[in-house]
Amino acid sequence: MAWGSRVLDHALALDAVGLIKSFGGKRAVDGIDLSVPANAIYGVLGPNGAGKTTTLRMLLGIIDPDQGHRRVLGCLEPRDAGDRIGYLPEERGLYPAMKAREAIAFMGALRGLDWKTGRSRGAEMMEAAGLGHAVDEKIRKLSKGMAQLVQLLGSMVHRPDLLVLDEPFSGLDPVNQERLEQIVLAERDRGATILFSTHVMAHAQRLCDRLAIINRGKRRFEGTVDDARATLPMRAHLVPREAAGVRDLLPLDALEVEGGGFDFTVPGEGIEPVLARLIEGGHGVAGLSVERPSLHDAFVSLVGDDGRENHR
């Protein structure tokens, strides 16, 4: 099937073309395309207010786009695939009087899973996630992080083909963040596709097979983590054995730093010509390190000033 000038790939778990959504005359999402491969972890990255949550809600059919099309697990209407989708919304919420495994079973029942199976799986999943001691604890007695993990487990207890997580790491301490990362990886290994939004680059860099970066409602980048990092040149730190006169042999942007070294952008032809000039000029090399930019660096470059705060 072709939408506009684009032919949709039926092997994709999720595909969206030209999604547009406005609220009160302000365009929150402005023509976003997404292609999420099956059995992959796909991140939607952007600053707060970039349009991530609105995009996910349109993909799930919670709200409809003003323009554009989306297809989820082969269904043109996302709600038709509802029982095959798990969803952790940005706004968390569980019944405080429910016991933990019953909360998981309840969420599974909403997706068509029978109660007995949901309770049994809930206990098994909590044990595997390091929460076995809290299986019969009421939600109100759990810490915020534990309750959030319980809700996450509830979103996947019916073993969905697609798991959509909106800012899943928000509010979790480092221990529970690591647990969540392991859960996400295990779901991919089970065969699920995971789509999650975040503004924390460290999780995306470790987890994502592919990602999209959006800002002010527009998609600024789509590709792998390595593709994103490759949008910026590598940086070098060099310490010559003999520093006198070496500045003229280095790239124009070279800056002298503490310790007698120089930082500069690696030229397009590579670091080798720089080293050859230093050796031929009798300066030698006492130390050299070449670093690829991080996903954080690429993110800030792609989104501009909007990405300079609250990202790590």
Helix/strand layout:
Blueprint: E1 2-3, E2 6-7, E3 12-23, E4 26-37, E5 41-45, H1 52-60, E6 67-72, E7 85-88, H2 100-110, H3 115-128, H4 144-156, E8 162-166, H5 174-190, E9 193-198, H6 201-207, E10 210-215, E11 218-223, H7 225-229, E12 235-239, E13 255-257, E14 261-265, H8 272-280, E15 287-291, H9 295-303
Helix pairs in contact: 2-3, 2-4
Task: Provide a descriptive summary of the structure in words.
This protein is α/β, with parallel strands linked by helices and 312 residues long. Helix content is 30%, strand content 27%. It is built from nine helices and 15 strands. The protein has helices spanning 52-60, 100-110, 115-128, 144-156, 174-190, 201-207, 225-229, 272-280, 295-303; strands spanning 2-3, 6-7, 12-23, 26-37, 41-45, 67-72, 85-88, 162-166, 193-198, 210-215, 218-223, 235-239, 255-257, 261-265, 287-291. Strands 7-8-9-5-10-11 form a six-stranded mixed beta sheet, sandwiched between helices. The chain has a four-stranded antiparallel beta sheet with strand order 13-14-12-15, with no helix packed on it. Helix 2 packs across helix 3 (115-128) and helix 2 (100-110) packs parallel to helix 4. The radius of gyration is 24 Å and the shape is elongated. The two termini are 40 Å apart.
